[in-house]
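Many introductory courses stop at the sequence. We go one step further.
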Amino acid sequence: MPSTDSFRATLAEAFPDRPFTVAFWDGTRLEATAPGGPTFTLTGPGALHHLLRAPGQLGLGRAYAAGLIEVDDLDRVLPVIDGWEPPAPDLRT
């Protein structure tokens, strides 16, 4: 399986303030920058395909429905989905 090292580094740079943890299929994690946030567990690279093809709620929903993303606490996930505003991507990179 492909390594998640470069993706984790890019994700950490793109989202320096994360109210959630991302756990990857290879056992690595990108921790939340604030306590008490939910954990999204990506069960395989297919989850990234959904998230990159349709960023935001649509891709997340598709990956969740396909069983490629698991969440530890749905009650903590809903406020993140509804209220978190990620920074705009740097189009130069």
